Amino acid sequence: MTSVVEPQKSGGLGALVSEGVCRDFLTTLRWPAGFVCPACGARRGWRTDRGTFFCGQCRTQTSVTAGTMFHQTRVPLRTWLRAAWLVCTQPRGVSARRLQHELGLGSYQTAWLLLQRLRHAIMHLSDAPFAGAVEVGVVHLGRPASKSGAMAPVVLIIVEYQRQRPGCIKLWHMPAANDANLRGFVRLSVAPGSRILTAAGATYGGLAAAGYQPVITPPAGGAPAAARTGRQGPRVAARLRRWLWTAHRGAIKRKNLQGYLDTFALGYNRRCTGPDGKRFRRLLAHMVRIRGRIYRQMTAATDAG
Prior knowledge:
It is built from nine helices and eight strands. The chain is of the alpha/beta class and 305 residues long. It folds into three domains: 18-64, N-terminal domain of TfIIb, CATH 2.20.25; 74-124 and 269-305, no CATH class; 133-252, 2-Layer Sandwich (Nucleotidyltransferase, domain 5), CATH 3.30.420. A five-stranded mixed sheet has the order 6-5-4-7-8, sandwiched between helices. The chain is globular, with a radius of gyration of 22 Å.
């Protein structure tokens, strides 16, 4: 594995050697056409000696990290960018323990917080809906029911096809395997009018009424097109199970599952989302446009582990 501290040919961190350079890099991502005051929207402003920006209209002083995922962070920006690069370039994902080791962090809690914020950004990174031919499948991660009677986590797998070839995927942790949840997640991920490819025997009620065109995919060995289109879901499910075990030894808490699914999807989609540098810039550009959650808010929604 190539260390994230070494210069990379495609958009790596070789040139980001100081906090000032990292701050300038984030500034170009947040305001590519020049400074825009977040308070009043004016473009009249200048940078102060402290590295902040002063608005000439409302006289508000702000920083490039204010109101973003980096808001009030005590972690150096270079550490943040190294963490983002590692998450973007590792196909098998990154655990908080490994992130702590790679970045030389003294606290596991800090590494966990960095990873959770990155996963939160990844979760909202791909908002554009899939279109055209889209495969939909449901997989249970584990046995249908455990000894305690609790149902195994249910994951909805959505695969976009381009020219009859599988492309990017989206994964959703469904609270329950029912038609209402499935239709809701499909609406979030697939444009109306798309062809929904489903396996033979699957009953996804209501998709036609919701504006989609359900198509039953013939089993493997049937029509020649079946070998190319509509058969990717089981392969994604198998790779997901292997990844959860090899990367995390299967120790996935249900509350944290969506974050792991988003991390897996990011690595899986590397082949259809461009080079590492482009994906890295896209993630950081998204992080300077949304506000992150503080540690107490995260631990209230999920357990650190």
